[in-house]
Structures
1.
Amino acid sequence: MKIIDVILTKSYTGFYFDDQKAIKNGADHDGFMYVGEPMTEGFQKVRQAGEAISIQLILEDGTVGYGDCAAVQYSGAGGRDPLFLASDFIPFMEKEIVPQLIGEDVEKFRPLAEKYDRMIINGKRLHTAIRYGITQALLNATANSKRITMAEVIRDEYNVEKGEYKAIPVFTQSGDDRYDNSDKMIIKEADVLPHALINNVDSKLGRNGEKLLAYVAWLRDRILKWRAREDYNPIFHIDVYGTIGLAFNNDVDKMFNYLLEVEKTAKPFHIRIEGPVDTGDREGTMLLEKALTEKLDAAGSKLEIVADEWCNTLEDIKYFADNHAGHVLQIKTPDLGGVNNVAEAILYCNEKGVGSYCGGTCNETNISAQTTTNIAIACRASQCLAKPGMGVDEGYMIVKNEMNRVIASANKRVK
């Protein structure tokens, strides 16, 4: 089935672009706004509206494949591609990409995805957001033309072991509203929670980590008080954006001792800490997270390190996995470019015995969330992010409902 037309439109994401460098350097809130000057190239303000480009691939029989080109909230940070604005990239795509897509046969997803993910134009690879959106649309077109789910396409083309399709844990993120949003998560019995957005040492972590400890204690007590059943035991997953390293000057022993205190405070719940350090480069971040992982394991700790910053591309993920730099690796889906890389990353982590967190960003769309949920199900990821947005309910609804639909539909065809 061939593509006969391509439609591009400006779209909006479920959140905003935020200048992480400015925030880490003290940009403060004024209501929902951030006060201060941007510090990352491309930003006009510290916080600005999230944008995407929607792609519709029109096939010969009228079937449509949908995909959204979207980039992460903290674009331009941690080694990522620069800010992605629709007005900058639609003209480029119309000139350079659309003519190549027309006439392509979507019978097979994987070879087409790899072609566009690896494409070089004017001596450069395509922006990760463009690769992300095109490959989503190609996957959706292949699935729709075959009248099956995207999960089934992935499992067939990546030779994933056959068997029943099963639900995977869903991780909800709170953003700055880490108290009321946590209550929403408790009511809906989210599998993994709450994210918490600990992205500033003074205001959120505390110079000695005391503010985070107080929050973990509050969350523990809140669940014990309000859970509807005693066997509801969610995993705590808190993203600290490198602030533990900043507070303790990247001293491994001090960070290790602090993490043991965090683990003790969270009991009886299991806890994960995402992004404990960020040295500003891949090698330094990997080495410190590897050291923390080894030290925690040697001590018999059950606290898990989740790698995020500088673990962006498929190559990065394989590098962190090979070095066991973290118990779980976030596969931040827009950062990998083509969604074919998301499938490969999950399968590689699973093979290496490292947790595979099919993540992403609050700054995505419903289309990209549904697509990556299919891939997470097909490849049996360790957990999947509820996205987009920071309001909990919307992202949880999109991902959980897509998961339930896909599983029910695909299992009818399992042999």
2.
Amino acid sequence: MANLPLIIKYILTGILGMFPIIELRYSVIISQYLFNLPVLPAFICGLIGNIIPIYFIVKYIRPLFDFFGKWKPFKVIIDWASEKATKKIAENKKLQNYTALGLFLFVAIPIPTTGAWVGSLIANFLDIPPKKSVPPIIVGVIVAGLIMVFANGGIQYLLQ
């Protein structure tokens, strides 16, 4: 992998950032170990890759839900998740006022299943418009990525 052209390494880092679970937080670390990329360029490429799907998920995942909702196994899951999410937000006025903060905090915690993909799905389930949901998700991605970079740097320092 070290013999790849530099531009290909950056593109692959961006593509890694697009994958659910991996996202920015792990794409930087993977690119450092696999491609020997410096932290800042790897961070920027992973960030760009992670940001690209956010708007599309928030805005356009509903037609996919509708399409897959035609089949009973998917419909049961989609209906259950949608009903649960909308009911929670409708019942709680505080939750309505702090959805942006909640999305940010959810995405900013760097553990699997709390990234931009799931945060975007949550925003879609709660019918939060992209204008209100995309910025806190992006800031959460940046914070989670920074936490991972600093944690990885600390671990490397301790191992030396």
3.
Amino acid sequence: MKHFYMMRHGETVFNVRRKIQGWCDSALTEKGIQQAKAAYDLIKDIPFDHYYSSTSERCCDTLEYATRFSVPYVRLKGLKERNFGLFEGESEDLNTHFEDF
């Protein structure tokens, strides 16, 4: 039996500023780094065959901190988040207009 694990990136500057973030990238905050480091204790005893990450730096950084920079991994463009076009970097308040659809 195989298991598939997914982990979201740690908190970013755009998360704190409530900005829409897809293809645009923002750095992990200190809290985001601490979240990623804390994930180590949750995954350290799980035997993984492979590690993959989105090409976004926030995701790669999260994986590296969560594994204490100790594992090789592959960056896959196909794991990249959606491109929100003109909405990239705009306020998350714009999302409230689309919640009912």
